[in-house]
């Protein structure tokens, strides 16, 4: 979770009211943060805030916390209002950036009065947004510039690397693009995002002055904001237009909280034009009965309206429903429970009296878990070793290394690591990874896993479903399809199920040595010998035979 520093005096300047340190400890909860540390420096008190929501980048700065506190305390109500004045500034986007870094959005914020703390918050916010929400600049990279030193219009161009030379930020000499990627601190850290591309992204003004080379580094001469800066030009690039628009909304509204005036910029693409930023409020509707049922406290319609207005919603109650508008810098309202959470934050979790359960219940093991454990015992009885692997994985493991086309999969929006960026849709890749990490051990290696996979299901409220599966992998020099089938035969006999195999083609298995497992006319799994290309992808030198089946169909004789 993001952690960031804020000064007590700066927070109170933004809120317009002073509080004790103890009071701030509670106030941080309104902004979904915890007070992680307090210290004194130069006679001033500083806090380390620990954000507990990776979907609320608008709360990762002094401006965001102060705004949330003002509303929660009733010092302001309803939607925050931000005026946007059109400018005559234009940015032209090069179509050759389509497969490199295709989108950019921009804004100007004028009439700023910056001091050391305000400048620190601007830099910290853009770093935190790009690092966490922007997946280490891969999805979102942010540049801020002293607008009064620039000469619009601007051009977001695709430029051949050997034609790029400028002085990068915090450097005192001109460097080529390759020198920046190889020698500069930020080039070493983020250069991999563009290295090897035929063109590098470059943002320049009308005179060809380099502002930045997104997503790596800004220019020292034209890309530095100081306490003397009065107007800031904001540049945000990435792959998803909606995502970078949200990041832009977060940055411009934070600056507006410091008295800045927002001006829009026209962005011209080959096929369309847009004006950015767009702070049009978003809309959502929720049944008040849902809020009342799950809140755990008695709330009237007016209570709910009051609490939501203190969380920056515009609320209209019609026929038992709350029609809501909420700020454009938020993108986390996906379900009624997200609105309920805001209601309870405004109410105060500490104000909800604890209650003992009214009904005594007796704990009991889940019957399906007992069934899974019985399958585990059966596999161990067949001489297999159980492994337990992670539900989190990545697309490369699930598809590329398994030699199959990529399909829709449940992905993590802001993963800490790309290695753990998705939920697995089948188990065999996990077993292949296990075998790849144990090539130094003796063979035969006979392993199995009973575990969960997550599949897309548009009919369900969550659009996903979790299924239990069994996967078996056998690795040794003489392993064959027949050996895996013998284990499958024994398993099916114990389950009291009859099955047949239907020959299919599957990229993970050797053609002619793979079959779909059919029970009562329905597909329940797959069996076969792993394709040599898959073995090579995982660095496994032994042949592998394997099968994988769903377990739920066999629970309590579901097929029988």
From TrEMBL:
Where on this chain does Mg(2+) bind? 332, 338, 341-342
Q: Which cofactor does it need?
A: Mg(2+)
Q: Name one GO cellular component term.
A: phenylalanine-tRNA ligase complex
Query: Any idea which GO molecular function terms this record carries?
Result: ATP binding; magnesium ion binding; phenylalanine-tRNA ligase activity; RNA binding
Quickly give the catalysed reaction.
tRNA(Phe) + L-phenylalanine + ATP = L-phenylalanyl-tRNA(Phe) + AMP + diphosphate + H(+)
Q: Which domain of life is it from?
A: Archaea
| Localization (cell) | Cytoplasm
Keyword Magnesium in annotation: yes
| InterPro entries, A to Z | aa-tRNA-synth_II/BPL/LPL (IPR045864), B3/B4_tRNA-bd (IPR005146), DNA-bd_dom_put_sf (IPR009061), Phe-tRNA-ligase_IIc_bsu (IPR045060), Phe-tRNA-synth_IIc_bsu_arc_euk (IPR004531), Phe-tRNA_synthase-like_B3/B4 (IPR020825), Phe_tRNA_ligase_beta2_arc (IPR022918), PheRS_beta_core (IPR041616)
Q: Tell me which UniProt keywords the record has, alphabetically.
A: Aminoacyl-tRNA synthetase, ATP-binding, Cytoplasm, Ligase, Magnesium, Metal-binding, Nucleotide-binding, Protein biosynthesis
Looking at the record, the residues that make up the B5 domain are 279-354
Its predominant location is cytoplasm
Q: Which Gene3D superfamilies match?
A: 3.30.56.10, Bira Bifunctional Protein, Domain 2 (3.30.930.10), Phenylalanyl-trna Synthetase, Chain B, domain 3 (3.50.40.10)
One GO biological process this protein is involved in is: phenylalanyl-tRNA aminoacylation
Family as reported in the entry's similarity comment: Belongs to the phenylalanyl-tRNA synthetase beta subunit family. Type 2 subfamily.
Extract the HAMAP family matched here. Answer: Phe_tRNA_synth_beta2
Write the protein's name.
Phenylalanine--tRNA ligase beta subunit
Which species does this protein come from?
Thermococcus aggregans
* Record lineage: Archaea, Methanobacteriati, Methanobacteriota, Thermococci, Thermococcales
């Amino acid at each position: 979770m993001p952690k960031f520093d804020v000064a007590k005096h700066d927070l109170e300047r933004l809120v317009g009211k002073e509080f004790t340190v103890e009071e701030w400890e509670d106030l941080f909860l309104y902004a979904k943060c915890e007070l992680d540390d307090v210290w004194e420096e130069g006679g001033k008190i500083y806090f380390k805030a620990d954000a507990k929501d990776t979907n609320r980048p608008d709360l990762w700065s002094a401006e965001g916390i102060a705004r949330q506190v003002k509303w929660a305390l009733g010092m302001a109500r309803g939607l925050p209002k931000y005026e946007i004045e059109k400018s005559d500034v234009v940015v032209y986007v090069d179509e050759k950036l389509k497969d490199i870094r295709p989108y950019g959005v921009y804004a100007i914020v004028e009439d700023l009065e910056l001091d050391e703390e305000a400048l620190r918050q601007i830099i910290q916010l853009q770093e935190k947004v790009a690092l966490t929400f922007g997946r280490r600049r891969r999805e979102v990279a942010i540049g801020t510039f002293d607008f009064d030193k620039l000469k619009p219009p601007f051009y977001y161009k695709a430029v051949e690397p050997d034609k790029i030379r400028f002085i990068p930020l915090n450097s005192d000499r001109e460097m080529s693009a390759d020198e920046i990627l190889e020698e500069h601190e930020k080039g070493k850290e983020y250069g991999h995002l563009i290295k090897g591309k035929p063109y590098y992204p470059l943002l320049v003004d009308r005179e060809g002055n380099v502002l930045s080379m997104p997503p790596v580094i800004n220019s020292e001469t034209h890309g530095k904001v100081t306490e003397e800066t009065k107007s800031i030009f904001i540049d945000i690039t990435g792959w998803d237009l909606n995502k970078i628009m949200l990041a832009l909304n977060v940055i411009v509204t934070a600056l507006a909280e410091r008295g800045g005036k927002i001006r829009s910029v026209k962005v011209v693409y080959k096929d369309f034009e847009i004006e950015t930023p767009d702070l049009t409020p978003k809309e959502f509707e929720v049944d008040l009965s849902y809020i009342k049922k799950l809140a755990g406290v008695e709330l009237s319609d007016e209570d709910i309206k009051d609490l939501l207005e203190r969380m920056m919603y515009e609320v209209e109650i019609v026929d038992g429903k709350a029609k809501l508008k909420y700020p454009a810098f938020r993108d986390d309202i996906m379900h009624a429970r997200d609105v309920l959470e805001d209601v309870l934050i405004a109410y105060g979790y500490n104000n909800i009296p604890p209650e003992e359960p009214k009904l005594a219940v007796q704990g009991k093991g889940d019957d399906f878990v007992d069934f899974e454990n019985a399958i585990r015992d059966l596999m161990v009885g067949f001489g297999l070793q159980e492994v337990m692997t992670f539900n989190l994985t990545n697309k490369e493991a699930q598809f590329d290394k398994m030699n199959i086309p990529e399909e829709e999969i449940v992905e993590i929006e802001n993963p800490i690591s790309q290695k753990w960026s998705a939920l697995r849709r089948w188990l065999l890749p996990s077993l292949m990874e296990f075998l790849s990490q144990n090539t130094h051990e003796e063979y035969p290696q006979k392993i199995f896993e009973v575990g969960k996979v997550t599949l897309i299901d548009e009919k369900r409220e969550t659009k996903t479903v979790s299924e239990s599966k069994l996967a078996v992998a056998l690795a040794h020099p003489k392993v064959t399809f027949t050996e895996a089938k013998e284990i499958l035969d024994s398993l099916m006999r114990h389950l009291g199920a009859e099955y047949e195999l239907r020959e299919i083609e599957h990229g993970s298995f050797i053609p002619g040595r793979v079959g779909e497992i059919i029970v009562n006319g329905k597909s329940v799994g797959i069996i076969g010998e792993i394709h040599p290309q898959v073995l090579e992808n995982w660095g496994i030198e032994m042949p592998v035979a394997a099968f994988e089946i769903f377990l739920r169909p066999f629970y309590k004789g579901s097929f029988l």
